[in-house]
Specification:
2 copies of one chain form a homodimer. Chain A is 19% helix and 33% strand. By secondary structure, chain A is an alpha+beta fold. Chain A has a single domain (3-254), classed as Glutamine Phosphoribosylpyrophosphate, subunit 1, domain 1 (4-Layer Sandwich), CATH 3.60.20.10. In chain A, the strands form 3 sheets. A 7-stranded antiparallel sheet of chain A has the order 3-2-4-1-12-9-13, with helices on one face. In chain A, helix 3 (129-144) crosses helix 4. Chain A is globular and about 50 Å long. In chain A, 50% of the residues are buried. The A-B interface holds A 42-52, 59-60, 63, 66-67, 87-91, 95-97, 99-102, 120-126, 146-147 and B 42-52, 59-60, 63, 66-67, 87-91, 95-97, 99-102, 120-126, 146-147. Chains A, B: This is Glutamine amidotransferase. Chains A, B: It comes from Chitinimonas taiwanensis DSM 18899.
Chain lengths: 255, 255
């Protein structure tokens, strides 16, 4: 199984601290050494760093650790290959464009069957069930809505599509269009909202602490979503199987 | 105007030497300081590094300079903003998927008018004429061919589409689907094929030489395509206005 990490904030924030713990799980504190990736939205733009090397030793991960990219929506993934070989084409997150926006998707779990992809508007480049599922989701959305609908209609459709897709297998996923971040839980997914009064956080995977009081303003709000909690002195909430949360401006809402 | 750099090879090759000279033009030996990007195909996979900082000082460019990513098709671009603000969404190369392959596109020039984008399958995320042109190209190809056609049919279509698009303005571009790399010249574009017997090359933008004899096998062949020549002791060939070359396995063919 893979590990997911997401961040959604009300002001552009860097993910260096959380990423420092997360990347250790790629080959060091856990055995997910089959590549990794992280995508950052910056306004409508998106940059995606992928590497087929383990995140604990990858030079690209070193850059991401040290270059404080500020973003309101981030999705990261470290891979333990189950379906599809180790290759760049099979590395999450996957990116596509719909309605003039980039979309990022990362998945943890195994789909036992795959829904049919008709019309071929979105086709997988690699051979993972995950990229197939992403292509199916976007294709379904593009067929339902010729243009970008109101957020509530989009989220209702996403809820229906996630229900359908979850019938094919285990479906923990993170999805973002740069405006909001959706988190769907099948087995393991936890979240945390950091906001004033800020305190100190201590990583599980490495003996590193940070005092967010020194780095934040009282109006800042940051939600972190991860397969397993990243810190051992903060309150992480487990999502329930089948639960879909939409994070916007650092706050979750249930669908 | 911007600067383009492309590489097409018969075996995966790193672009570190050429990139070292090229990146200096982003703010140091030339004034293209409004962001830069580079995309590498690795098999069907593609990784794209983008930064809105000048390539001469960007930490991402430092990584690309020092991390020898081996690829058979590379497209890089440094930007002098003419249309569209400085932002990640306006940074080349642009990437989309068609027929289960990633495509990369970078452009140098200004389109005075823009062809209509019907059906909305590909829509620009940023506000450059370049991304619009790329979306139009892919939309046209997807309308002509429901599935990936034979390479010669695809190249014939590309030739027709480039002719149409060039009527809208100045169109120097590099386009690759990971199998081949197309170079279209409107004003400035040069290429070079390095093959046995290999010799020494010396950069124009920095006093750095490399002896390719020590780094290659006799079967290696590498084509480099750049707005302006990168070395001062090799024979670069200028493309003619309106010329479209397809590079495959390090060799150009004229369309």
């Amino acid at each position: 199984m893979c590990q997911l990490l997401g961040m959604n904030c009300n002001v552009p924030t860097d993910i260096c601290f959380s990423f420092e713990g997360f990347r250790k799980r790629g080959g060091l504190t856990d055995h997910h050494a089959d590549g990794w990736g992280i995508g950052f939205f910056e306004g409508p733009g998106c940059r995606l760093f992928l590497d087929w090397q383990a995140s604990s030793t990858s030079p690209v991960a070193e850059l991401v650790r040290n270059y404080p990219i500020k973003s309101t929506n981030v999705i990261a993934h470290i891979r333990k290959a189950t379906v599809g070989q180790i290759s760049l084409a099979n590395t999450h997150p996957f990116m596509r464009e719909l309605w003039g926006r980039y979309w990022l998707f990362a998945h943890n779990g195994d789909l036992k069957t795959l829904p049919a992809l008709n019309h071929g508007r979105y086709q997988p480049v690699g051979d993972t069930d995950s990229e197939h599922a992403f292509c199916w989701l976007l294709q379904q959305l593009s067929q339902r809505f010729a243009e970008e609908p109101a957020a509530e209609d989009l989220h209702t459709a996403l809820r229906e599509l996630a229900l359908q897709l979850a019938q094919h297998g285990s479906l923990n996923f993170l999805l973002s269009n740069g405006e909001w971040l959706a988190a769907h839980c099948a087995t393991h997914l936890h979240y945390l909202v950091r906001q004033a009064p800020f305190g100190e956080a201590h990583l599980i995977d490495q003996d590193v602490s940070v005092d967010f009081k020194a780095l934040t303003t009282p109006a800042d709000r940051v939600a972190l979503i991860a397969t397993q909690p990243l810190t051992d002195n903060e309150h992480w909430t487990a999502l329930s199987p089948g639960e879909l949360l939409i994070f916007r401006d650092g706050l979750p809402s249930r669908l």
